[in-house]
Write a structure and sequence with these properties.
alpha+beta; single chain; 4 strands
Length: 113
């Protein structure tokens, strides 16, 4: 009888070169924070690398002030790359194009069992 393999630890993922992406949405009328997390290993890594490469990390727009608006934080940990971690904070109005694609991909991956 075969037992299912346990989930890899964070250290094992890092050692294997797993790419991790975390999306956090904060703000809004209730000020509730939501978080989604995705891990890409082996076969999935090229797709995620390409998706993240399209994001203008260096040119991420500044947050704009405004009541009841969402702010999105996107953080990607990419072992073996330079830089190994990238992060952007975006106002809701800037969540378009490749940024929106990343958020949707992370949300979709987080919903899978």
């Amino acid at each position: 009888m075969n037992d299912p393999s346990p989930e890899p630890t964070d250290a094992e993922r890092a050692e294997a070169g797993a790419l991790e992406v975390e999306v956090t949405r904060s703000g809004g009328m209730a000020g509730i924070r939501r978080r989604w997390h995705a891990v890409a290993v082996a076969d999935d890594r090229p797709r995620w690398d390409a998706l993240l490469a399209r994001c203008p990390w260096e040119d991420a727009p500044e947050e704009t002030a405004g009541a009841d608006r969402f702010v999105w934080r996107i953080r990607a940990s990419c072992p073996g790359e330079t830089p190994p971690e990238r992060m952007a904070r975006l106002p809701e109005s800037a969540l378009v194009g490749p940024w929106l694609e990343v958020v949707r991909a992370v949300q979709s991956a987080a919903e899978r069992p």
